[in-house]
Amino acid sequence: MITKKFTLFVLGFVTILTTLYSGPRDFSMLVYNADRDFNGVFIYTIIQDEDGFLWVGGDDGLYRFDGKQMLNLNAKDSAINNLVTASVVSSDGHLFMGYYEGGISIVEHGRYRKIVSKEDLPNKVNRLRSHGEKTIWGLTQNKGLIRVQEDSVTHFSHSIFDQLISYDFMVYQDFIYVATNEGFLELKVEGDQLTSLGFLESTKGLQINSIFQDDHVKNLVWLGTNDGLYSHFLESRDIKPVEGFPAHVQVSSIAKDDLNTLWVGTKNHGLVEVDLNGIEVTAITFFNKQNGFESNQVGEVYVDHENEIWVGTFGRGLVQLNRAYFHHYELYKPLAVQGIHSIANYREDELILATEQGLVHAYHKAMRDSLIFEPLKYTQDYSFTSILVDGEVVWAGTRDGVIKVNLLQKTIERIGLAPKDVMEHHLIREIVKDNDGNLWISAAGNGVYHIKPSGELINLYNTRLGFYHNEIFAIFPDQAGNVWFGSHATGLALLPKGGEMQFLSKDEIFPAFDINTITQSADGNIWITTEGSGIYRFDGENFKQFTAKDGLLSNYCNAAVVDDIGQIWVGHRLGISLIQPGYDLIRTFHHPGELGETEAELNSVCKDRHGNIFFGNPYGVTKVNLPHFNFKIAKRHTHIKDLRLFYNATDLLNYSGKAKLDDILPSDLTFPYDENHITFDFVSINLRNPEAIYYQYMLVGFDKGWSPVEKSNYATYTNLDPGTYTFRVRESDHEALWDDEYTAITFNVNYPYWEMWWFYLLQIAAITLIVWLTYFLSGRLQNQFAIRLMVYISVFIAFEYVHTELEPYLTTVSGETPIFQVAVNLVLALCLLPIEIRLTHYLKLRAQAVEAKKELSTTNQVEA
């Protein structure tokens, strides 16, 4: 690995000897290519919108990435052309695109609208910037600037641009600073006029390719040039080269993450990580082809909302740089050390490890994101059990008493207590410092010694003097000045500040008796790990127990530490548990493939200034990388991306009354009755780990409750009955964590024509007409058979219509059981019995009337 550490001069290569071991890097690389539905090779621009979608513009057009699907939008971009070279998200959340052949368009809900045509702006757009409310500035290669304010477009031209190549720019108050091939150009905006103030004197003749305005330090600007990386304060007239950054490296792009790290893309030297402490550069690391990076030619670098690094290369496509969750540093094979019994922070960015074979110094030398492990040879005669680092001095517990190690002078001093050294030949279990700067030391079989840094004894606690046990495994001075003690067999004790010793387990206040370690979170809660009883939380009044039944990996808890956002990390013999108190969740990690080594040593854990956590193992160290970033619960928005009919994509505007979209999907969707097979595509965007998202969904009007938890991001419903439905979907980082927030879309499935109100009226009118005609004709016909036939047909039609309409409801009542169906039909028949009696009576009367009419006719004929 070729890297360069920041000092007053550039260090050479580091030779790794048998006494020096370099651990693995903190990053892995994911390349997007044709195998991932991405065909871009030359990447010009990368940006993430407010919804979380990542937009990538390159030689193969524009792509939208949601973590799972890389969607090519070329077919929808008919506004200008397919080569997007610049992009920006406006203050109101709209995405603007600039093009290689000129022109600017706005992306509204996945569709394009032209703002400036390439005929009006026939020059490559190199950069777009958002400034103020609803104002977009664009920089062309040599035709000046353009300002877009809502639908108002102003073109700022100046003769100076015709002589230059403009690469990048920034807007600051009423001034615009442009990175050009001739230096850093300053301009002033006055209304619709642009006035050139000339080049910054110290940059004349310097090709500046990129500008990054620092978001941590006011008025600080980073400049990427063909001659390295520079810093510049806007109120000054000078620029300063970044010390340690090679002057021959041509910078193409600059971005910055939330850890105060600059990510610098170069034209021929790959990606560069510049670690900052304030504005001071502390280390520089190169990612290039020589050490496994995809390409040395970087065109664009972007840091997304979740602190992931995206690199657009020239020739090798898109690269995602992932921070590792865990790293295991194997120390036994390269260094022949084992038993990492204690870990402590040293200086700002280093560690001291207490091992069976002496102390080990872990530090960053050649690489910012890797550790170098170096055994301290002058300590190899000691077997260390516990350490406390105080400046350049290590108070160290060994299997043979206490020693004090001066790391600068490389000297060792044995610590004895006057008048009699009772600790001299005993195993030391714990050394801690209290709020007053005094030390607490636990000696196996001899209790606890409270001493001053000078070695003077303040107090001694053992069974001969009334203490509850001589084997103390844990000592913890809390934020309030109280001191907690944990032993095996006799449990927990507390020495309140200025008070009397309290034996909490003995007095049955605390239920457990085997204590391994004690720590405290920022909210004041005390966390106590045990040997066989899980971990307890004390909130000042009550103890709450967490065990394997609650999700803990094991009830045997060897170590615990609190990360920067209050999450509790617990080390076990078989892995690590993570307690997230704010959500009442417990997660576990126990696969050797992710942890390297699963066993955590007793009370061997520490957290560095970056928030990384280190667990000591029997044969190495396991690092939890930035847990406050990597393992926090994030609340994300779920997007319903599309509705498909019969699994096929369709233009949903055909099912809407609107001419254009007012959201990703139309809000007034209505489907015909025979297009009722609908698939919902949805996504909650997690670009780093899309497979970690859980979903639940429900179709109101069809489902009775939420679906089972699943990871697939689509749902299909078939043969939907006519009606109004609302599809709801929600996401979570954890399968047991759900709230009432969800994303929803409402739609209708139309009724078929035979179920429309007007068709019902038509049917009723037709039946009424048939009955009326039957009644009308029956009074005029003489044929008794014809009358009966007409009456029975009309009545049958009416009865069958009623039965057909009632049948679904009758089936609901009777179910599938035959005897119930017979009973329901019998009830219906009994209901129809009065009608049948009336009908029979009517037909009898009609027959009598016809017969009487015949007799009357016969009588009249006889009389005639």
What is the straight-line distance between the termini?
134 Å
Number of strands: 65
Can you name the CATH architecture of the domain at 514-633?
A: 7 Propeller
Give start-end ranges of low-pLDDT stretches: 1-18
Structural class: mainly beta
Q: Outline the biggest β-sheet.
A: 5 strands, antiparallel
The fourth-level CATH homologous superfamily of the domain at 514-633 is: YVTN repeat-like/Quinoprotein amine dehydrogenase
Describe the structure.
The protein has 864 residues and is mainly beta. Among the domains are: 514-633, Methylamine Dehydrogenase, Chain H; 638-754, Immunoglobulin-like; 756-863, no CATH class. Helices cover 13% and strands 40% of the residues. The protein has seven helices and 65 strands. The strands form 16 sheets. The chain has a five-stranded antiparallel sheet with strand order 1-27-26-25-24, with no helix packed on it. A hairpin with a 2-residue loop joins strand 37 and strand 38 (401-406).
Could you outline the blueprint of secondary structure elements for this entry?
Layout: E1 4-5, E2 21-22, E3 27-32, E4 43-48, E5 54-58, E6 61-65, E7 70-72, E8 84-89, E9 95-99, E10 104-108, E11 111-116, E12 125-130, E13 135-140, E14 145-149, E15 152-156, H1 159-162, E16 166-172, E17 175-180, E18 183-190, E19 193-199, E20 208-213, E21 220-225, E22 228-233, E23 240-241, E24 251-256, E25 261-266, E26 271-277, E27 280-287, E28 298-303, E29 309-313, E30 318-323, E31 326-330, H2 332-335, E32 342-346, E33 350-355, E34 358-363, E35 372-375, E36 384-390, E37 393-398, E38 401-406, E39 411-415, E40 428-433, E41 439-443, E42 447-451, E43 457-461, E44 472-477, E45 483-487, E46 492-495, E47 502-503, E48 515-520, E49 526-530, E50 535-538, E51 543-546, E52 559-562, E53 568-571, E54 576-580, E55 585-589, H3 592-595, E56 605-607, E57 613-616, E58 620-624, H4 627-630, E59 638-645, E60 669-671, E61 678-684, E62 694-700, E63 714-717, E64 723-732, E65 743-749, H5 757-778, H6 784-814, H7 818-863
Parallel strand pairs: 60-65
Antiparallel strand pairs: 1-27, 2-35, 3-30, 4-5, 5-6, 6-7, 8-9, 9-10, 10-11, 12-13, 13-14, 14-15, 16-17, 17-18, 18-19, 20-21, 21-22, 22-23, 24-25, 25-26, 26-27, 28-29, 29-30, 31-58, 32-33, 33-34, 34-35, 36-37, 37-38, 38-39, 40-41, 41-42, 42-43, 44-45, 45-46, 46-47, 48-49, 49-50, 50-51, 52-53, ...
Helix pairs in contact: 5-6, 6-7
